[in-house]
Amino acid sequence: MTAPTGFTDITDELAAQAIELPSWAFGNSGTRFKVFGTPGTPRDPFEKIADAAKVHELTGLAPQVALHIPWDRCDFEALATHAGQLGVRLGTVNSNTFQDDDFKFGALTHVDERIRSKAIDHHIECIDVMDATGSRDLKIWLAEGSNYPGQADMRGRQDRLHDSLAKIYDRLGESQRLVLEYKFFEPSFYHTDVPDWGTSFAQVSALGDKAKVCLDTGHHAPGTNIEFIVMQLLRLGRLGSFDFNSRFYADDDLMVGAADPFQLFRIIHEVIRGGGLNNPDVAFMLDQCHNVENKIEGQMRSVLNVQEMTARALLLDTAALTAAQESGDVIAANDIFMDAFYTDVRPALAEWRTSRRLPANPVQAFRESGYQEQIEAERVGGTQAGWGA
Amino acid sequence: MTAPTGFTDITDELAAQAIELPSWAFGNSGTRFKVFGTPGTPRDPFEKIADAAKVHELTGLAPQVALHIPWDRCDFEALATHAGQLGVRLGTVNSNTFQDDDFKFGALTHVDERIRSKAIDHHIECIDVMDATGSRDLKIWLAEGSNYPGQADMRGRQDRLHDSLAKIYDRLGESQRLVLEYKFFEPSFYHTDVPDWGTSFAQVSALGDKAKVCLDTGHHAPGTNIEFIVMQLLRLGRLGSFDFNSRFYADDDLMVGAADPFQLFRIIHEVIRGGGLNNPDVAFMLDQCHNVENKIEGQMRSVLNVQEMTARALLLDTAALTAAQESGDVIAANDIFMDAFYTDVRPALAEWRTSRRLPANPVQAFRESGYQEQIEAERVGGTQAGWGA
Amino acid sequence: MTAPTGFTDITDELAAQAIELPSWAFGNSGTRFKVFGTPGTPRDPFEKIADAAKVHELTGLAPQVALHIPWDRCDFEALATHAGQLGVRLGTVNSNTFQDDDFKFGALTHVDERIRSKAIDHHIECIDVMDATGSRDLKIWLAEGSNYPGQADMRGRQDRLHDSLAKIYDRLGESQRLVLEYKFFEPSFYHTDVPDWGTSFAQVSALGDKAKVCLDTGHHAPGTNIEFIVMQLLRLGRLGSFDFNSRFYADDDLMVGAADPFQLFRIIHEVIRGGGLNNPDVAFMLDQCHNVENKIEGQMRSVLNVQEMTARALLLDTAALTAAQESGDVIAANDIFMDAFYTDVRPALAEWRTSRRLPANPVQAFRESGYQEQIEAERVGGTQAGWGA
Amino acid sequence: MTAPTGFTDITDELAAQAIELPSWAFGNSGTRFKVFGTPGTPRDPFEKIADAAKVHELTGLAPQVALHIPWDRCDFEALATHAGQLGVRLGTVNSNTFQDDDFKFGALTHVDERIRSKAIDHHIECIDVMDATGSRDLKIWLAEGSNYPGQADMRGRQDRLHDSLAKIYDRLGESQRLVLEYKFFEPSFYHTDVPDWGTSFAQVSALGDKAKVCLDTGHHAPGTNIEFIVMQLLRLGRLGSFDFNSRFYADDDLMVGAADPFQLFRIIHEVIRGGGLNNPDVAFMLDQCHNVENKIEGQMRSVLNVQEMTARALLLDTAALTAAQESGDVIAANDIFMDAFYTDVRPALAEWRTSRRLPANPVQAFRESGYQEQIEAERVGGTQAGWGA
Predict the structure, then answer these.
(1) Min CA distance, A131 vs chain D (Å)?
(2) Do B147 and A33 touch (CB under 8 A)?
(3) Where are its TM segments located (chains A, B, C, D) (predicted)?
(4) Mean pLDDT of C84-88
(5) CATH second-level architecture of B17-378?
(6) Secondary structure (H, E, C), chain C
(7) Would you call B249 an interface residue with chain C, using a CB distance cutoff of 8 Å?
(8) Residue B291: which residues within 8 A CB-CB, separation 6 or more?
(9) How many Cβ atoms sit within 10 Å of the Cβ of residue B58?
(10) Distance from CA of D282 to the nearest CA of B (A)
(11) What pTM was estimated for this model as a whole?
């Protein structure tokens, strides 16, 4: 098996690639109708970290794990030590404004100053966690909004959001960042306070240079050209991080690359075009739910999908592409672009993986490792982690 | 205040209108992220019926309550008696193929004959309930599907679905019906086994005359012309029932008429045009979730919205409309159509309601009745009903 | 007939309302499949102005007419005089980067400096027209993009767009403005260079205070909460103008208010909330195509729809709404909001119109005026105006 | 270069594959805003056939050409002879109900019996053409509908559609078929008379066995699972033909496989699963517009895309897939499915093509053939073909 032309030129970039895993991907998840539990599901943050470390051990791609507060509340120094012993480190800290009864009608946007303060304090606590774990990024998914026209004053909420974010921003350390995620809809159905990249961009621009936008690939209207937004946010210097996943309809949170692999290719192409690959300013993270598939394998498949698409995008003949583009040769430009996408990089990646003492087929290696059987045997009793845990 | 021209001609139709309430609308509901509990929420089917009966008492619009099995399992004869004492009756029985662990990968469509049998048996149990309650309709929302391409064999599942439905159909009594609901997506994200009206129509047509389609107004792709489907199903003699609600994005399950009142008007116009209004073959039901609003008031507002739009649609000057249509006068036809929609029927309805010894403003009457305070005081302890209850 | 409570308080606002008509609405239009011609269609800008003036004469709502270059090239001083004699004035000047063969692969974004210069020069010509007509606004709909992945370098195009816009911006007079319209898709199918409000906002913010965003109500992804964008752009001080129309699917360019009247109500509510009503900084314009309906009547119906929804939105009991919102009373807040929408303002508007010496029913008055018959008789020979004219 | 495992087993199927080209793909096309003309564009049906034959000569994939009446009206016997001399044959005949001024408000659905008769007669003429050309299929794209609520009586139109289709169906010869295409929207914006597969299915089922459904891959709502419909129509015995193209937003008519190659893979997988590949009952056709790319190359790329995806889908390890599906192993099933999609069949196809005396790279061979230069030189004067020609 020979590698595709140019493969050896891209291995440094591949070796540098790091994708952050969400701790919650290892816990149970589901739809509003049903959460199917599975044997071996972690019961605490330490077990989540162990599963994440297994993904990294077998893929070499996932050295960092994102936390979610309050789901992962524990002794954070002990957790950081535990992570280090397993070969990974703690990463982005995610706040939660959607599960406290007080936040039914808003948190950072709430009309009641007392509840806004409570929400701000929650974010201060998150920054305290960041200080303890050495995390750089505070990620805020603003899951606030309203269900009915007239229910809320959208304008007032937007202004209060700015005030709340400014207070949180002021608490950030020198090298810390605030990353504001946007989402088209859900859990609110009429309006969402940060529904699009434009709102996130406007809000973070009003804060300062340490505030960035998080782009979750599942958080857009049908038909949205997501790679355009990637391009634009990189151009504007405001792309802080990705939440990778894939979707057919809404925020399905499927494995990244599963629904539309070509879209993932196009997104990564724009990341490379805009200087975002292996750029510390742009965090690559997963945000997924493995409702019906094995969770650890689901995470492995996802980071491998990102790696495979990165390899394909790196192999693109950009000089030939530019020439075709500039001459208005639509067919040639598209052919060159598709040629990179259609190149099967998997055998070369398997060989290269072996050369780095990683299993050629990480998912198969996981299945042969006995790890799943072990955790199913060990993790008995207690309460499995989930979004409510 | 004078009533709109022609109002007296439509009051017989209005008096005949009956909308079925879903028992689960009175229980707690939410998104996959959070279910907000509220004081006074029913703890058992009897309390749900009591709340539904209150809606009927104050609106005169909701004499029937739909049940969901297993959520409403209880002594059904006692429940029927209870309902009768409160002035309502038990209606459609809804089955559930989405919450048993065995049904993770399908129920009526499952590749394993044992699990299919279990799912069929569940429906037989539902028909037993119908026999006990005197219900006519078995409603099946086929919440089955897959999340990933390749996960399932869609064709085999479709064939097995037919076999399973045929077995259930055979068990129906002479005057009972099977109503098959379709849904665009959720809880599955790649494929759904009954995703559109065409599939439901093809499946029920293969069963026999007692099988019909249920149209849930929230279960379509963005941009779908729902009233066209209403027209078509009535024309084909297969519209069995409506699940009314409204939505901005996905299956939001908001109060019917809240998101797009003009769409509700158009739907009811086609119902009237096709002979479906106050036609016993076409059941009007709600299927909604009151995540943030008062549940009883939410049901009241919803049946009132249906009534108001029915009144507007009945007031349409169909002779003038037909003349404008036939002459190709687009502006006039649209004006005549909009005139009915824009006519404010609310004062006339309030007067007419008073004439029938109903409160002019049912929601206000509810607020003044003390019922909410009473149930909040009484319903303490126990477990509030919800989708998992 | 009594007017709704509070109607007399809002007549000053109603009297101040002015909606700009697009000259091209009076020419023939259609889909890519067929343009149906109609008798009486204008053959030059002067006849378009005459039709627009007739709309204003009968509604009192449309004192200004937008031009499109090159479609409306003529002796602009003569045209301005003609307009003035008919009681209207010339307004926004629209440029065109989508019909010159040189612009097949871009205009202001083109990779070839020669073509960019040509496109910039076209806009300079437009500003010359503005100087001649006394127009304030140059509106740029950036109909540029690509059809296939790989066809174009989106990032480079975005940078070149900035450079081109900056050159055009520099040519603006002291009191002139540049308004940049965004559009989700069409005529390009893979990427559009200004596809969303965020991109338009970022581009105009980089230019200066005289650059604003134009919001066309038909230019969004399915499910987009448009009134949220209205709120946000007003909040950010960047809402320059509206292109009003309505749509069911894509950019259908139907009469405003025809597809979803409640959405129009919500949009105008946010305009009022944000101080945009009768604010000279926010131009109200139509941008519509009357493919199958009478064009003059279509424009009349549209401005009347805007007026009716403005009246309803002005009648909203904002104090009661705020109280309900602040107390978390979702049902009451929604009821108050819907009450304004459902209030039938048409009889009161007809009376008020009569009091201003306008016809109570402008469309009927037009039909009785003989104007249509007159133009059908007079406008014989020549070439009817259309998008290619 | 070695071929993928199993490649030799699929070459018989590949050799049998035949894709029909639309004559109109070689004429000029565009959006409602602009049609860009290109040198060498055919000026009559004979030149269109010549271009189509060139595609077949170089790819071996396109032996048949579909006609559109009235665009291709000519001496059909001469045209058939011309086609035969160039190595291709005439195929499906497409009717046109959207460009005659009489059809502004409908054709087969029109309320006026005179206009319905005219539309029916047009289809009789098409069947006469079929008799002359030896074509089997009459394809009807029912481009009828309305733009405004109230404009038309949808129910009456549906009934009249049935009557009209029945008259046309009666005229079919023994071995001829009627294929009814559905489309979500455009050119109508409120309602379309055959908007979905369910309507087409219901209408053709009411006609008889010679009536089938045409599935155009660009004619669905956002998010529609098209392969599900393919499966269902094959299962119901009603899939008559495909119109292949691709789209990002609406009916973009891009080259098939260009927007979402994985979707094309899934569609062809279901075709194979349901016995539709190389089944004479299921016609594979293209329906595309090459607005900005070279038209002949665009057709070549499209048939090659279909061939490549067919090869990938044929290579799927169905035994392993079934085993994984039946064991509920979601990750394995998806991996097996994706493995086929990711297999790069292009080198093996190039070798196989060479073995059949076809150019390894057909597009490059076309570029080197001088054909484009030749037609640009020869086809001077006259009127280039387009949708209006």
Answers:
(1) 38
(2) no
(3) none
(4) 98
(5) Alpha-Beta Barrel (3.20)
(6) CCCCCCHHHHHHHHHHCCCEEEHHHHCECECCCCECCCCCCCCCHHHHHHHHHHHHHHHCCCCEEEEECCCCCCCHHHHHHHHHHCCCEEEEEECCCCCCHHHCCCCCCCCCHHHHHHHHHHHHHHHHHHHHHCCCEEEEECCCEECCCCCCCHHHHHHHHHHHHHHHHHHCCCCCEEEEECCCCCCCCCEECCCCHHHHHHHHHCCCCCEEEEEECCCCCCCCCHHHHHHHHHHCCCEEEEEECECCCCCCCECCCCCCHHHHHHHHHHHHHCCCCCCCCCEEEECCCCCCCCHHHHHHHHHHHHHHHHHHHHCCCHHHHHHHHHCCCHHHHHHHHHHHHHCCCHHHHHHHHHHCCCCCCHHHHHHHHCHHHHHHHHCCCCCCCECCC
(7) yes
(8) A147, B29, B30, B31, B35, B36
(9) 24
(10) 17
(11) 0.98
- The residue of chain A with its CA nearest to that of B254 is A147
C150 touches D at CB < 8 Å: no
Residues in chain C, overall count: 389
Contact call for D330 and B148, based on CB within 8 A: yes
Q: Which of D111, D150, D202 sits opposite B337 (nearest CB)?
A: D150
Chains in touch with D (3+ beta-carbon pairs under 8 Å) read A, B, C
pLDDT in tens, C103-143: 999 999 999 999 999 999 999 999 999 999 999 999 999 99
Nearest to residue A229, comparing CAs of A189, A200, A203, A193? A200
Neighbours of C166 (CB within 10 A): 15
Is C301 in the B-facing interface, judged by CB distances under 8 Å? Answer: yes
Strand, coil or helix: what is A18?
coil
Determine the average pLDDT of the residues in B32-45. 95
For residues B53 and B87, the answer to whether their CB atoms sit within 8 Å is: yes
Q: What stretches of B142-222 adopt beta strand conformation (E)? A: 145-146, 177-181, 191-192, 211-216
Q: Would the pLDDT of B1 be above 60?
A: no
Please compute the mean of the pLDDT values over residues D259-279 and round it to a whole number: 98
Out of D148, D231, D322, name the one closest to residue B158 (CB).
D231
Q: Where are the domains of chain C?
A: 17-378
CB under 8 Å to B139, separation ≥6 — which residues? B66, B92, B93, B94, B95, B179, B181, B214, B241
In whole angstroms, how far apart are CA D325 and each of A248, B164, B187, D337, D343? Answer: 20, 20, 19, 11, 21
The Cβ of residue A350 has, within 10 Å, a number of other Cβ atoms equal to 16
Q: How far, CA to CA in Å, does A367 sit from each of A54, A62, A175, A310, C174?
A: 12, 18, 40, 25, 71
Q: Which amino acid is at B71?
A: W
Scanning the structure block, which residue is given the tokens 């134009």?
Answer: C214
Whether residue C387 lies within 8 A of chain A, CB to CB, comes out as: no
**Residue matched to tokens 């799912």:** B119
Which chains are adjacent to chain B, needing at least 3 Cβ pairs under 8 Å? A, C, D
Instruction: Indicate the pLDDT class of residue C2, thresholds 50, 70 and 90.
Output: confident
Q: What angle in degrees, to the nearest 10, is found between the helix axes of A7-16 and A346-355?
A: 60
Contact status, residue B350 vs residue B360, Cβ threshold 8 Å: yes
Contact between residue B307 and residue B268 where contact means Cβ atoms under 8 Å apart: no
The pLDDT tens digits of the residues spanning A102-116 come to: 999 999 999 999 999
B105 touches chain D (CB under 8 A): yes
The rounded distance, in Å, linking the Cα atoms of A286 and D380 is 57
- Joined together, the tokens standing for residue C265 give 């109500």
pLDDT band for position D389 (cuts 50, 70, 90): very low
CA distance C263 to D189: 17
pLDDT of residue A389: 44
Residues near D63 by Cβ (< 8 Å), separated by ≥ 6?
D18, D56, D87, D88, D89
Which residues of B are less than 8 Å from C262 in CB distance?
A: 260-262
